[in-house]
């Protein structure tokens, strides 16, 4: 592939499914690697990519930072288990990980007795939400704390 790609595409499972990082330049898709990824964040002229790890105790998380030429920085994150996503502003990052597969959604509108989740986005998301809480008061945050202490998957 010559020149810069118009679009970078990423697939979560790399070598297991033929996924990885792909470049698309308007007519040709080129596979750049087969690394499994779980998070991607763009800031300025760079993007960060959190690589998926097996979740085994002690296995490091890995962050790759790319510029327009290629990989410019590698960061090893010791004891990051089950990485899910990445928030990054171009200089610092937060890697989100969890040992739970539950989804908790906090929406202050839920505290209103008249609230109904009518938007298409909410209707599409709610079947995948395990715990839907208001999160707008001390009482609702105590409810969240009780939920977290009891274990989300129970």
The side-by-side strand order for the widest beta sheet comes to 4-5-6-7
The number of distinct β-strands equals 11
Note poorly predicted spans.
none
State which percent range the strand residues make up: 35-45%
Oligomeric assembly: single chain
Question: Can you write the helix and strand succession as a string?
Answer: EEEEEEEEEEHEH
> How many whole angstroms does the radius of gyration measure?
19 Å
Mean pLDDT: 76
Specify the biggest β-sheet.
4 strands, antiparallel
**Which geometry do the CA atoms define?**
globular
Based on the model shown, name its key terms.
12% helix; 3-stranded antiparallel beta sheet; mainly beta; 2 domains; 154 residues; 4-stranded antiparallel beta sheet
Compact overview of the structure:
With 154 residues, this protein is mainly beta. It has two helices and eleven strands; from the N terminus they run E-E-E-E-E-E-E-E-E-E-H-E-H.
Explain how this protein is built.
The protein is mainly beta and about 150 residues long. It folds into 2 domains: about 5-95, no CATH class; about 105-150, no CATH class. The chain is about 10% helix and about 35% strand. The protein has 2 helices and 11 strands. The protein has a 4-stranded antiparallel β-sheet, with no helix packed on it. Strand 8 (about 85-90) and strand 9 (about 95) form a beta hairpin. The longest helix is centred in the last third of the chain and has 13 residues, at about 140-150. About 10% of the residues are buried. The mean pLDDT is about 75.
